[in-house]
Amino acid sequence: MMRGGSFLKSVIIIFFLGALASMSAQQNTSQVSRVQRAIYIFNIAQQVSWPEQLDERFKIGVLGPDRTLIDLRAMAQKRKIQERQVSVSNFLSIKDIQDVDVLYVNRKYNYQMPYILQSLENKGILVIAEDYLFNSSMINIVSVGDTFRHQLNEGLLNKNDFIIAPSLQSYAIASSEKWQALFQEAQDSLQAVLKNAKQKDELINRQEQELVSQNEIIDTIQEIVKYKDSSIQELQETDKQQKKTIEKTQEITEELEDKVKNQLIELDEQQVTLRNSAKEIETRQDSIEVQKVNISDQKKVLLEQSSELDLRATINWLLTGIALLFLIAGFVLYKNYRTKKKLIEQLTIQNTTILEQKEELSQKNEDLEQFAYIASHDLQEPLNTISSFIGLIRGDYGEQFDEVGLQSLEFIEEASDRMAKLINMLLEYSRIGKTRVFTQVDTHKVLQDLEKDITSLVTRTGATINYTQLPVVSGSEVELRLLFQNLITNALKFCPEDKRPILNISTTKVSNVDNPSQGMWQFSFSDNGIGIHQAHQDRIFSIFQRLHTNDEYEGTGIGLAHCKKIVSIHKGSIWLDSELGKGTTFYFTIPYGI
């Protein structure tokens, strides 16, 4: 009976090995097709040029729960696309698709292609679809036998600025009839595979039914043998457990006997020790009682003596403290009197010195401003004479000059123009602060009016000026307008030619460093220009200080000196924060009320 069972087992094993071999072959075919699909997608992406590439990694997205995601990730470990590492991500919803270069979608998951194309329009994402209708996607692929074929929708590709390599175009399917024929061929091939698989499943079912009855007999015999084997094993296990229990019981009994003996010996020793300790305790208690009586007598005597000493000490300390307080109070009053007297004398001397210095500085400033005004005003007359004679010479004798002479006249004329500009700027600098009548100035309106006046400059440079609501301050509207104008024109002028100027203007409330109780408005003008080197930042507010030649950037070098003088007149301060090549931020402060 057992030999018959062994034979049947052998037959069953051979049958299942054959079925597994057939399934393994089908799985290998499916695996090859999946690998070919991943390779085909990689090859298509390699032959397409994107309008722009913003990321160092090439990103592929898979729409739906498609096993192609696994194959593409495995391929990404081995291959690059356009010299870029490849990453693959999965999307279950069309609205979640973003930040990928290629999107793969299979028709079997019932995603609507028009909705996909509409959602991804102008996002630079190439859509590769499988088994969709002709011209329904940017690129369609279909499985034909052991390979894949593709069809290109040139209208959609051109609309999204994709450039296709000629090799990809040459192998593309150009007509819907051929596409339908290939699609039908793929469907027929799939149906044939499914039919073959169905026939094999029916054959396996029949063979399984024939083996059912034989398996039941074999299972019955095996159950009987298993039951006997399990009974024998249970008896053997029970015997082993009983032997172990007896051995453990004997060991525990011996250990308990040893412990009891040791404990009895220890108890005898402890009883002897306790008797001796009790005798010593009785002796010590008698001695302690005698000492308690002596101590109580001594305490009474000490309490009487200490009460008298405490009273005397308290009286002495009170008298000493009162005397010391009187001495300290007198010394402090005398010292304060002498200190205040000295401070009053020093303050009087310092105030006199400060007033004298203030008058002297005021007179010097007036003299300097008057000198600058007179000097610049008187310089205009000879400069105008030079400019006039240059015009006369060019008109009367221009034909007699050679090229070097004409160029020299041009240099003289340019120099006189620059000198005239410098003189005018010097005059403006000397006039700043002449009229110190401050009013309430709406800086937001000042900036809006100024923006209208420099519309041509903003248009020519393509600049953007961003600002929030600016505050109302107490000051000179004309001088604050000049301050804003100098800072804005500098930001638009000192910007690389290949960059559009961006100027951000904002304000915040701060405390005065010298007087924390006084509030200040802090203005910031932040640009994206050429920046200022750290070594030159300390001298740019000085008059006629220029960091560039006229050939690079025009100017007189007095604009920031104007700004510093205007801010100083308004009791504020001006500074900057800049890094070469990364732009500059000018800060200045004006008190809430002056």
Give the strand line-up of the largest sheet. Answer: 3-2-4-5-6-7
End-to-end distance:
118 Å
- H-E order: HEEHEEHEEEHEHHHEHHEEHEEHEE
Radius of gyration: 52 Å
- Overall shape: it is flat
The biggest beta sheet is recorded as: 6 strands, mixed
Kindly state the percentage of residues in helix.
55-70%
- In total, how many beta strands? 15
Q: State the secondary-structure class.
A: alpha/beta
Q: What is the mean pLDDT?
A: 78
Low-confidence stretches: 10-23
By oligomeric state, this entry counts as single chain
Number of helices: 11
Strand proportion: 5-15%
What is this structure's SSE topology?
Layout: H1 2-46, E1 48-49, E2 58-63, H2 68-76, E3 86-91, E4 102-106, H3 113-119, E5 126-130, E6 139-144, E7 147-152, H4 154-159, E8 163-164, H5 166-170, H6 176-397, H7 403-431, E9 439-442, H8 443-453, H9 455-461, E10 464-467, E11 472-475, H10 477-493, E12 502-511, E13 519-527, H11 559-569, E14 574-578, E15 584-591
Parallel strand pairs: 2-3, 2-4, 4-5, 5-6, 10-12
Antiparallel strand pairs: 1-8, 6-7, 9-11, 12-13, 13-15, 14-15
Helix pairs in contact: 1-2, 1-6, 6-7, 8-10, 10-11
